[in-house]
Structure formats: structure tokens, C-alpha cells
Design goal:
This protein has about 500 residues and is an alpha+beta fold. The protein has helices spanning about 45-65, 105-115, 120-125, 135-145, 150-155, 165-170, 180-185, 200-205, 240-250, 305-315, 325-330, 370-395, 410-420, 435-445, 450-455, 470-490, and strands at about 5-10, 15-20, 25-30, 45, 70-80, 85-90, 100, 160, 180, 190, 195, 215, 220-225, 235-240, 260, 265-270, 280-290, 290-300, 340, 360, 400-405, 425-430, 460-465.
Length: about 500
């Protein structure tokens, strides 16, 4: 039996996991990824750090698994989406730091595109809204602000990629410049009905097609490793992290929803047909297998679990992320304190690039326990915003919520989420379902599983959280939340 190596490159850490071909986790390695904040609202990473932390994570995973790298049958990649990297095709060196999906530096470019009347075209072709979240305006910013890029483009030396492309390039020794359909669909350059880069958008944004990667299926062999972790290992699955979690949660049909509580929070539901929402939700590609596309409707929260990291690192009021649950349970409520965690703007359904974080309702009796609890509740309120909106769009009542990601280790958060939504919240046995989704797709790519339905048998439940609190009480709290959000909107616009 061979093994599958999954590379899970996230916003705050790089992780590698070794699975056997039945989906059992044998060992993993994890390295924290440094973040760079050059200006307020700007977020960067060093692409070399992304690659080096993945290499370290692979070494750790192989060591813990006690296997030989020659026993690895295939590699699957799942990654933070939208994060934008440009590198030199000749030298392989980055031409600038990676501009992270959270970065808001291109907000003015988005305003410019809207003023040019391009948002309806963007919406129709890509399923996305015109927002600094996506890759295209980050590329535009780089092309406008890095003078040497023009000469390098004329020499056909510039490569653009999201993080999956950067990893694939390095794994294959610079032989493969490709991405998959799920990551391509997050660039705001990809026509998701024609399944190709869109010439109208490339012309409108003045982005040359020559810098773009080839686009492959989510489950197919796209290249072979050169020297690391071994020679000739097929990379047989690539998927953006949120679509990876959708697959890993075995949400294969409409009505099955997942939320990933990571750095941000992301709700996805597969759709039977292509549908554009007018209520702040995105349409994206869920996965593609054998050139067959499946679409999903998505709601994105920019600041989810990272608000706990902010409490730890910036405010210093908790010693570690796990202690947030202890502090939250130390008080009966927030004392009417609300924390709107719009640290990098607000995503769906508000899409306000200029909103900023706000803690409101502080009084003399407020302690750090109230603020910590309000931060966790703020995550759950944002998810109710998404669930309410997706029910309006699909006209289907959500019956349960499957959850994953690091923050789902916090049982206080999940119980409050169940109370707030009034439905069961289901935590699977493996909460890192993003990696599980990449494992499934990589396995299909080399024929271990014939299809998603066969692979779905590996999904197992850990715990179900059922509503415990009064619906009227939870609705009253939610109404107060919406008032707090209203006061945070547009803060940095003028």
C-alpha cells in the first residue's frame, strides 16, 4: 500500500499530513508562517517562507509517520486562495512578497473598476463581486507599482500564481506552471462558465495572458516532483482550501452545507446549476473531475478564528488560543458587549472594504472575559448572517451545519452557534477536513477511489451540538449584533 502526502498551506501555517489509502492519518508536520503588515490594511507573506515552511512540514510529517518518502504514491495540494505571487520564470525567484487574500491595498483599484462600469461584467463572467479580496486587483497593483515588471513581461519571464501554483512550480523544479479550476475561479479573471481565462477581463484590467498558469482539473496528475520529497511522485490533486473542506465534509449535493472556521470563515453549498446571487453571496467552482464542473454558492467572512489570534498577539489578554473557551465560560454573557471583528473589512453579505473592527457596549463592569466571549460570539453572528442569506437565495431551509477548521476545537463557540441558528451543528472526527478533501481528490486522481461517492464513506462524526437556548432570546441578541455592524460600516472610507 502506498501513502498520500497532503500539503495544506494556510494563511497562518503550513501543514503536511501523511494518509494511508483508506484515509487514516499517520502523521503530520506543522510550521507557523510569518505574517507581514507593512501598513494598516496591508497583509503580505514572503513566498520563500511559504515554500520553506512546507518543506519543513513535509520532513516532520514523514518522520512522524515513520515511512520512507519512496512509499508516497501521490501528493495533494490545498491552499489559501486568492493570495497573489509573481515570480521570475527563469530564476524562480519571487518578484515581490505574496499579497495575502486579506490585504486591502487594492480597494481603490476596485473603486476605479466600478466607476468604469465593470462590476456587472465581472459578476456575470466570474460569479464574484469586485473586491480587493480577489487576485486580479492585487496583480494590477503589482504591475503598477513594481517598475521592473514591464521589462520582464516583455521577455516572458513573469509568472503569476496563487499559492498552489507556487508550490507546484517548486515541487516540479520549475517544469509546471498550473493551477486548478477552484483556485482559478477565485482570481476574478476566470470565466467559470467557459472554464478559461477571460480575454475581456484581461483586456479591461491590462493583465497579460502570458503570466497566467495553465488550468487543470481538481483531480488529475498535473506534474511530477523533481527532488523533493522524492523524484517522480505525481501531484494528482489540487483544490482551494474552502472547496477542499466542502469535499472533505462530503457535501456533494444541494442542501448540504459546511462552514470552515479558520483564519476567516467560509460557508459553501453545492448547486445543481449555475446561479448568480444578488444578495452578497459568491458563485464559485466547487470542484472539477474529468472536465465536469460543479458549482457552489459561497459566503466569506474575512476575520474568523484570526480574531482569537489578535486577542492573543495584539491585545495580550489571553495566553493562547485554547484559553479563549475558558475565559468565555467564566461569565454568563458578554454584559451587552459586541465585538464586530472587521479587522480587514467585512465580507458577505455586507462586502464593505472600509468597515473596521469595533468593540461596543463597554462599561465599568466589562472585563477581559466579556471581550473574549464577545469575540467568539462575533464569529458565530457572522455565520448566522451567511446562513440567513443563503436561505434567502436558495429558498431552502438549512437543516444542519457541518463544521471544520481549527476553531471548531472550541466547544463554546459551536454550542453558541447551534443556539444562534437553532439547528444541529456537526463536528466531524477529523476537523482538518480541508486536508481530507485534498486527500480524496488526489486519490481519485490516481484511481484509489473511482468517484466522490465511494470516497465519502471515510467521513465520520465526532460530536453533534444541539440548540439549548430560547429562540426569542437568541433573535434579540442577533438584532443587537446587526445594530453593532451598522455602526462599523464605512469607517475608513473618508
Amino acid at each position: 500500500m502506498g501513502y498520500i502526502l497532503v500539503l495544506d498551506q494556510g494563511t497562518t501555517n503550513s501543514r503536511a499530513i501523511i494518509f494511508d489509502e483508506s484515509g487514516n492519518q499517520l502523521g503530520d508536520g506543522k510550521k507557523e508562517l510569518p505574517q507581514i503588515f507593512p501598513k494598516p490594511g496591508w497583509v503580505e507573506q514572503n513566498p520563500d517562507d511559504i515554500w520553506s515552511t512546507i518543506q519543513e512540514a513535509i520532513h516532520l510529517a514523514i518522520k512522524k509517520s515513520e515511512i520512507d518518502s519512496r512509499e508516497i504514491s501521490a501528493i495533494g495540494i490545498t491552499n489559501q486562495r486568492e493570495t497573489t505571487i509573481l515570480w521570475d520564470k527563469v530564476t524562480g525567484r519571487p518578484l515581490y512578497n505574496a499579497i495575502v487574500w486579506q490585504c486591502r491595498r487594492s480597494a481603490d483599484i476596485c473603486e476605479e473598476l466600478r466607476d468604469r462600469g465593470l462590476e456587472p461584467l465581472i459578476r456575470e463572467k466570474t460569479g464574484l463581486l469586485c473586491d480587493a479580496y480577489f487576485s486580479s486587483t492585487k496583480i494590477m497593483w503589482l504591475l503598477r507599482n513594481i517598475p521592473e515588471l514591464k521589462d520582464l513581461i516583455r521577455e516572458n519571464r513573469v509568472a503569476f500564481g496563487t499559492v498552489d501554483s507556487w508550490l507546484l512550480w517548486n515541487l516540479t523544479g520549475g517544469k509546471v506552471h498550473a493551477t486548478d479550476t477552484t483556485n482559478a475561479s477565485r482570481t476574478m479573471l476566470f470565466n467559470i462558465t467557459k472554464c478559461d481565462w477571460d480575454d475581456d477581463l484581461l483586456d479591461a484590467f491590462d493583465i497579460p495572458r502570458s503570466i497566467l498558469p495553465d488550468v487543470v482539473d481538481s483531480a488529475q496528475v498535473s506534474g511530477y516532483t523533481e527532488d523533493f520529497p522524492g523524484r517522480g511522485i505525481p501531484v494528482s490533486g489540487i483544490v482551494g482550501d474552502q472547496q477542499g473542506a466542502l469535499v472533505g465534509q462530503c457535501c456533494f449535493s444541494p442542501g448540504s452545507l459546511k462552514v470552515t472556521y479558520g483564519t476567516g470563515c467560509f460557508l459553501l453549498e453545492p448547486m445543481e446549476r449555475f446561479l448568480i446571487s444578488e444578495k452578497g453571496m459568491l458563485t464559485t467552482i466547487a470542484w472539477s473531475i474529468n472536465r465536469s464542473l460543479v458549482y457552489a454558492i459561497e459566503g466569506s467572512v474575512f476575520t474568523g478564528g484570526s480574531v482569537v489570534q489578535w486577542l492573543r498577539d495584539n491585545l495580550g489578554i489571553i495566553p493562547d488560543s485554547a484559553s479563549s473557551e475558558v475565559f468565555a465560560r467564566a461569565v454568563d454573557d458578554t454584559g451587552d458587549v459586541y465585538f464586530v471583528p472587521a479587522l480587514t473589512g467585512l465580507g458577505a453579505p455586507y462586502w464593505d472594504m472600509y468597515a473596521r473592527g469595533m468593540i461596543i457596549g463597554i462599561s465599568r463592569s466589562t472585563g477581559r472575559e466579556h471581550i473574549v466571549r464577545a469575540a467568539l460570539e462575533g464569529i458565530a453572528y457572522q455565520i448566522r448572517d451567511l446562513v440567513n442569506t443563503i436561505e434567502d437565495v436558495t429558498e431552502v431551509k438549512v437543516q444542519e451545519l457541518r463544521v471544520d477548521g481549527g476553531a471548531t476545537g472550541n466547544s463554546f463557540l459551536l454550542q453558541f452557534q447551534s443556539d444562534l441558528l437553532g439547528i444541529p451543528v456537526i463536528r466531524p472526527r477529523m476537523i482538518e477536513t480541508t486536508s481530507l478533501g485534498a486527500f480524496i481528490l488526489a486519490s481519485i486522481g490516481i484511481g484509489v477511489f473511482k468517484d466522490l461517492e465511494e470516497a465519502g464513506k471515510i467521513w465520520k462524526v465526532d460530536r453533534v451540538f444541539l440548540p439549548e437556548r430560547n429562540k426569542d432570546e437568541m433573535d434579540r441578541l442577533y438584532d443587537r449584533w446587526k445594530e453593532a455592524v451598522r455602526r462599523s460600516l464605512g469607517w475608513t472610507k473618508n
